[in-house]
Design a protein that fits this description.
The protein is mainly alpha-helical. 52% of the residues lie in helices and 5% in strands. The chain has one domain. Strands 1-2 form a two-stranded antiparallel ribbon. The termini are far apart. It binds zinc ion. Residues 14, 16-17, 19, 28, 30-31, 33 line the site of zinc ion. The site of zinc ion has 8 residues, from loops.
Length: 80
């Protein structure tokens, strides 16, 4: 196992000393500063995307329900 990765997928940069930090190592190997910012950002983005997706689905469902309800009541309310 090589100590330094040749091509890391995602690296964070230590805000303290500017050292590149691998995503697996949550703290800077140079100064030991924890890399919280980079690690915290991804879950938040995923959460936002999830909420947006949920909102979209709910909106779609409400629309479909409203539509079917509307057409249903219209058909029922028709005199003929
Ligand atoms: Zn550092």
């Amino acid at each position: 196992m090589a100590p330094d990765q040749p091509r890391p997928r995602e690296t964070g940069i230590c805000s303290r000393c500017g050292q590149l930090v691998a995503p697996e190592g949550n703290r800077c190997p140079r100064c030991g500063s924890p890399m919280k910012v980079h690690n915290k950002r991804l879950p938040i983005l995923i959460g936002i995307a999830g909420v947006l997706a949920l909102l979209f689905v709910v909106l779609l469902m409400v629309r479909v329900i409203q539509r079917s309800d509307d057409s249903d009541s219209t058909t029922q309310m028709e005199p003929r």
